[in-house]
Amino acid sequence: AAAAGRLTFEELGCHSCHRPALPLSSLRFADPGPLDMAGTLRRDDVATPAVYDLGLYEWAKALPRNDRGEVMVPLFGDLKRHVIADQQVAALGNELMAQRFVERNVFMTAELWGIASTSPYGHRNDLPTLDAVIRAHGGEGRAARDAYVALDAAARDELIAFLKTLVIEPKEAAR
């Protein structure tokens, strides 16, 4: 069922925002980084940035690489902001707090890696199931949401079965 659900995930267009993997040219990260926002620690604030080398960890060494040698991180996200609500489907967009000059119906794509281990869902944690959070997609996610709703129950169950494979491994398995 999960394999069929993975195909449905792509057929519905979920992968256009929840991209299965994103390339990284390096597993080394510096903090503060070159793109840190105003109001946070900046590179000029420290003599030497702290460098974190994720390549020292077995789980990171095991990540696949593309033909350019970039590490493919199974993020199931795109690190971009999207309009995620509209007039008819507004559950994900009724945020009352301003987001640094970003409209209140615009959010960063939620990464799906580990989603089966992280319920409840939504930015307020008010959506109890994967089905509920999929049905809450409006705006740019509306077409995929409508296609999901139009599926028969068996196909929806297959998609949910696929999403339930995206788990956070226990600490023992991550070593």
Give short descriptive properties of this protein.
175 residues; alpha+beta; Cytochrome Bc1 Complex, Chain D, domain 2; 2 domains; two-stranded antiparallel ribbon; 6 strands
Describe the structure.
With 175 residues, this protein is α+β, with helices and mostly antiparallel strands. The protein has two domains: 121 residues, Cytochrome Bc1 Complex, Chain D, domain 2, CATH 1.10.760.10; 51 residues, no CATH class. It is 25% helix and 11% strand. The chain has six helices and six strands. The strands form three sheets. Strands 1-4 form a two-stranded antiparallel sheet. A two-stranded antiparallel sheet has the order 2-3. A two-stranded antiparallel ribbon has the order 5-6. The two termini are 29 Å apart. The mean pLDDT is 90.
Give a quick summary of the entry.
By secondary structure, the chain is of the alpha+beta class. It has helices at 2-11, 58-61, 130-135, 142-150, 153-163, 171-174; strands spanning 22-24, 28-31, 50-53, 71-73, 81-83, 106-108.
